[in-house]
UniProtKB/TrEMBL annotation:
<protein>
    <submittedName>
        <fullName>Unannotated protein</fullName>
    </submittedName>
</protein>
<dbReference type="InterPro" id="IPR002347">
    <property type="entry name" value="SDR_fam"/>
</dbReference>
<dbReference type="GO" id="GO:0006633">
    <property type="term" value="P:fatty acid biosynthetic process"/>
</dbReference>
<dbReference type="InterPro" id="IPR057326">
    <property type="entry name" value="KR_dom"/>
</dbReference>
<dbReference type="GO" id="GO:0016616">
    <property type="term" value="F:oxidoreductase activity, acting on the CH-OH group of donors, NAD or NADP as acceptor"/>
</dbReference>
<dbReference type="GO" id="GO:0048038">
    <property type="term" value="F:quinone binding"/>
</dbReference>
<dbReference type="InterPro" id="IPR036291">
    <property type="entry name" value="NAD(P)-bd_dom_sf"/>
</dbReference>
<comment type="similarity">
    <text>Belongs to the short-chain dehydrogenases/reductases (SDR) family.</text>
</comment>
<keyword id="KW-0560">Oxidoreductase</keyword>
<dbReference type="Pfam" id="PF13561">
    <property type="entry name" value="adh_short_C2"/>
</dbReference>
<feature type="domain" description="Ketoreductase">
    <location>
        <begin position="10"/>
        <end position="198"/>
    </location>
</feature>
Length: 258
């Protein structure tokens, strides 16, 4: 964990903070002194949140968990209110949770399309709106949206996912305009390929199609680690980035320029 205490005594919400990219974000943010409020979507995911909390506490940090499917606005409002009541403040929000159910263009159903928009775009909007009300009262806060470089590059079987993330990028820059007068900063991280379950499975499918193992190109590491995203998130949540808002920051091992 980070030795820095740049987020000492702050409360940071991390959606999907129990596994995948979210686990790296939770770990680094907690290591910087914040109390991390991990949001998980369904009861079966609680085990991951609890494991993350245990890891954080063993390292001397603080964390708690809350059940909330961010695809439903009513759950968002009540969960944010509970977090504020339990922990007394909300200083940061990391909209990390997202879904990507790969499907070919002609096979994307209305249900699948709307679920991606609900979780990947509407969820971050309503979470940010609820959290920003508390930040506005304090005159300070930071919101970080986890997006993807694929929003600029496209990708196979990801029309619904990439459309939602493109919307998230637009939400980031527009929201930054709206709330900057209240001391609230909003930025997004454009994530490249990270070694999570989704990307591990995607690479396995590619290897099966190609009939040979995938080999990273020379130079910069080909796949990121969840803590790589955690380190970038820490910067955007901390006072070190107080002059940064409305930015789309690529943390991708060079994927955007390849």
């Amino acid at each position: 964990m980070s030795e820095s205490k740049a987020l000492a005594d702050r409360v940071v919400i991390v959606t999907g903070g129990g596994r995948g990219i979210g686990s790296g974000i939770s770990e680094v943010v907690a290591g910087a002194g914040a109390h991390v409020a991990i949001i998980y979507p369904v009861e079966s995911e609680e085990v991951h949140a609890k494991k993350m909390i245990q890891k954080i506490e063993i390292a001397g940090g603080k964390a708690s968990s809350y059940l909330c499917d961010i695809g439903f606005q009513d759950q968002i409002e009540s969960t944010v209110a509970k977090i504020h009541k339990d922990l007394g403040r909300i200083d940061g929000l990391v909209n990390n949770a997202g879904i990507c159910n790969f499907a070919a263009f002609f096979e994307i159903t209305p249900e699948n399309w709307h679920r991606h928009l609900d979780v990947n775009l509407s969820g971050p909007f309503f979470l940010s709106q609820a959290v920003a009300r508390f930040m506005k009262e304090k005159g300070k806060g930071a919101i970080v949206n986890i997006s993807t470089v694929s929003a600029f590059r496209g990708g196979n079987k990801q029309v619904h996912y990439i459309s939602s993330k493109g919307g998230l990028n637009g939400l980031t820059t527009s929201m930054a305009h709206e709330v900057k007068g209240f001391g609230i900063r909003v930025n997004a991280i454009l994530c490249g390929g990270v070694a999570t379950d989704i990307n591990i499975n995607q690479r396995a499918e590619q290897e099966a199609r190609d009939g040979k193992p995938y080999v990273d190109p020379p130079g910069v590491r080909g796949r990121g680690l969840p803590t790589d995203l955690g380190n970038a998130t820490l910067f955007l949540l901390s006072d070190a980035s107080e002059w940064v808002t409305g930015s789309l920051v690529a943390v991708d091992g060079g994927a955007l320029i390849s």
